[in-house]
Amino acid sequence: MSQVGSSTQAGSAIPPFFFIVTLDGPAGVGKSTLARKLAVALGIPYLDTGAMFRRLAFELRGNSDISAQKLREVFAGLHFTLSSGNGESRLLCNGVAVGNEIRTEKVGLWAARIAGNPVAREVLQEAQRAVGARSSLVVEGRDVGTEVFPDACCKFFLDASPEVRALRRLKELEMRGESHDLAELADSIRERDTMDRERAIAPLRLAADAVFIDTSELDIEGVFAVLMAHVRRKVPA
User: How far apart, in whole angstroms, are the C-alpha atoms of residue 232 and residue 40?
Assistant: First the structure.
């Protein structure tokens, strides 16, 4: 098993022998599943930037009204790394795999609030860029193609209606044994969409050079086929 670490000392430039593939889009659009599949197909690590925001939000217990100094102090105690092995990548925080404790709807809303904090974005983007300076990556999030890795060689923006995304989320939660109301999930997704798209700092938006894919009428394999067709044309052989 190999590890790729993060350091806030690295710059944003991508070394010429590495390449970055980015997937941006709102909650519940299938980015994580597709990013993992792409990473396996390309034989490179996968980075879930949203999980980093969720882990920080989890540490803060949703407290977004926090001083810049205190936030930096909290973040200084979080060391993110990627572990790669057996064709899979896992995000670690302080050597422990980030798990389902961050995957609740509550933590998702906390993360959306934290994402509007400029210091939170600054420290996490530095950590994300540091990982990209050490390895080729498939990266997914809200602003990875517009803000974190604007020079990525291949960018995608995935979207689907809130109703479709809520139904997908419901099925995912039911597979974990959790019971939720579909209408409440749809409302939660719309709330997160509003926060993501309307925040003043690095809002969720389509990069000018990104490929837009509406996943509403496509299954995972269908979207993956579209992604791979574009990646094969853009990613260095």
Answer: 14
Query: In terms of Cα–Cα distance, which of 71, 234, 53 is closest to 156?
Result: 234
DSSP bridge pairs for 81: 5, 92
- The residue type at 201: I
Please name the residues in contact with 175: beta carbons below 8 A apart, sequence gap of 6 or more. none
Contact partners, residue 196, CB within 8 Å, separation at least 6: 26, 27, 112, 115, 142, 203, 204
Dihedral of alpha carbons 97, 91, 221, 31, sign: positive
Q: How far apart are CA 111 and CA 61, in angstroms?
A: 10
* Side chain identity at residue 227, one-letter code: L
pLDDT per residue as tens, the chain (237 positions):
445 554 333 344 555 568 999 999 998 899 989 999 999 999 999 999 999 999 999 999 888 788 999 999 999 999 999 987 766 788 999 999 999 899 888 898 899 888 889 999 999 999 999 888 888 999 999 999 999 999 999 999 999 999 999 998 898 888 888 888 999 999 989 998 998 899 888 899 999 999 999 999 999 999 999 999 999 998 766
| 23 phi/psi in degrees, rounded to 5 | -125, 115
Please give the backbone phi and psi of residue 116, each rounded to the nearest 5 degrees, phi first: -85, -5
200 three-state secondary structure: coil
User: Rounded to two decimals, what is the model's pTM?
Assistant: 0.85
Contact yes or no for 158/31 (Cβ under 8 A)? yes
**How far is the C-alpha of 54 from the C-alpha of 71, rounded, in Å?**
14
